[in-house]
Design brief:
Blueprint (H helix, E strand, L loop, with lengths): L10 H19 L1 H6 L3 H18 L13 E5 L6 E5 L12 H10 L2
Antiparallel strand pairs: 1-2
Bound molecules: zinc ion.
């Protein structure tokens, strides 16, 4: 690849949000059991947590699904597309001109 890349991520912010994503995923793991209790408070809370999780998953890059390496959002210099690349094994996401689409697609490949 001969493109020159620009690093776009705030690494500290990413670290904090990755921890929050892990926390939300743990909390939502038992949601079927919680909903089985037919408690409206749980349903409301689960809904809230799921919205928060969806929001983060469209803005925060999870680590590489292949090697757990740090992933970085890149932008083509000679084009409008963004993509995600693993800094360790060079795995790449799809290319797209919508940042959140690229991030969500990368985060789904686990
Ligand atoms: Zn990797």
């Amino acid at each position: 690849m001969s493109n020159v890349f620009e690093k776009l991520q705030d690494e500290m912010g990413t670290y904090r949000l990755q921890n929050r994503i892990a926390e939300l995923e743990r909390a939502l793991k038992d949601k079927d059991e919680l909903l089985g209790n037919a408690n409206r408070t749980y349903a409301f809370e689960i809904n809230r947590l799921e919205s928060e999780l969806a929001k983060y998953k469209s803005t925060v890059l999870l680590n590489c699904p292949f090697c757990d390496g740090d992933a970085v959002l890149m932008q083509e210099v000679c084009g409008d597309d963004y993509y995600v690349q693993c800094m360790i094994c060079d795995a790449q996401s799809v290319y797209d001109n919508v940042k959140s689409e690229v991030i969500m697609s990368w985060n789904k490949r686990v």
